[in-house]
Design a protein that fits this description.
Largest sheet: 3 strands, antiparallel
Distance between the termini: 100 Å
Number of helices: 2
Structural class: mainly alpha
Strand content: 5-15%
Number of domains: 1
Helix content: 25-40%
Length: 195
């Protein structure tokens, strides 16, 4: 009888060891799966922020163009002095709002933007983020120059120089276009009427 008890006890100990080993293995696999889910979630969030950056950048660029082409009759066309001028254009008896609100940078979640200037006038914006974009190709033709850029800071949303298309500049020399030519005022937008 005592021998049977010893055998039963040994079997229970082995079974307990196998259960513990299976539990540890399941925990390790669960941890790996959680890490993969966090990576996928982070990548999805970054892609959504990229899409939001393209939308917000277009909002600012179009607001600058509307400000320029929306000059009251008899006044010269000028670029805005600041983002505040886009929010409330006081060149008119009733202020005009070219931009609905001050959008934060979706990548940095900061209200601060890099500014592209022509003299003292605002001609575009760019993100201050040094993160590498997920999207490296497959842009619409208007944003094809964003292909292969190293950081979001290189995605510059500026008014066009004589063509109505997007002007691409080096943010480190914020008032000079990447081609090295002096920036000029934007051309008249196509398919749009001044506000």
């Amino acid at each position: 009888m005592p021998e049977q008890r010893v055998i039963i006890r040994q079997r229970r100990q082995r079974a307990d060891g196998v259960v513990l080993l299976a539990l540890l293995l399941a925990l390790a696999l669960g941890g790996i799966a959680m890490m993969a889910a966090v990576d996928i979630s982070s990548l999805t969030r970054q892609r959504a922020n990229e899409q939001e950056l393209l939308f917000v950048g277009d909002q600012y660029r179009e607001a600058i163009r509307r400000y320029y082409f929306g000059a009251p009759p008899g006044t010269p066309r000028i670029l805005p002095a600041s983002i505040d001028d886009l929010l409330e254009d006081d060149r008119f008896p009733t202020p005009v709002h070219h931009l609905r609100r001050r959008y934060p940078d979706p990548v940095t979640a900061s209200p601060e933007w890099g500014e592209v200037r022509v003299g003292a006038r605002l001609s575009g914006i760019y993100s201050l983020s040094e993160k590498q974009p997920v999207k490296q190709q497959g842009f619409t033709p208007a944003y094809e120059p964003f292909s292969g850029k190293a950081t979001y800071r290189d995605w510059v949303f500026a008014v066009a120089a004589n063509t109505g298309a997007v002007t691409f500049v080096n943010p480190d020399s914020a008032s000079t276009p990447a081609s090295g030519a002096a920036p000029t005022v934007p051309s008249r937008p196509t398919n749009r009427t001044p506000p």
